[in-house]
Amino acid sequence: MLKADIQEMLRTIEVETRMTRGATGLATLHPEVMDAMAKVPRHQFVPGYLRPHAYANGPLPIGSGQTISQPFIVALMTDLLCPAPDDVMLEVGAGSGYQAAVLSRLISKLYSVEIIPGLAREAGKRLRDLGYKNVEVRQGDGYHGWPEHAPFDGIIVTAAASHVPWPLQEQLKPGGHLVIPVGLPFHAQELVVLEKKSDGSFFSRDVLSVAFVPLTGQGQDNGAARAS
Fold it and tell me: Is the N or the C terminus of the chain less surrounded, counting Cβ atoms within 10 Å?
């Protein structure tokens, strides 16, 4: 049954990708991304009572008012990062650790910051227990990134921010991509991709309308301007 659930999830991702092509510009996702989606046991990243629904194409609650994103969005955001085997990346919002597990199969090292202490502990332990040795999780305010390990080849934010945090812009390497949902809670949000140019400026594009839980932390009160 599990194999059939995974295959159905992959088919759904493929259908969603085709349906949103007009917005994203993507007719298909990279085979490496789809392979990572197939190999990460999503049922290990959701509460036990929700495991029968783990591979359905929808978000699921993971406690503390947070959710695990739907598989299509996880796959899309991963693809938009343009991951490469030698990359070192940053994730803001570890949640259950699922997005980290998928991305970790495609890059060299992932640093993940989670603001909720309980989720940070659980995600770190879960990833270690499942053998994802190239992921390091710490508790903290992800708005500020992880400057000790910057600059990063890519940065992914898994909660909606009112603006693109300037520390994350600073910590991205030239040529790197920052993928982040931007917008207010319960209002229109857009999945945004920023590419950092060699002169430090950014090319930014809106990809798709989305709905994420809000990014929290001290930095959200600063109201910094969105990059353009």
Answer: N
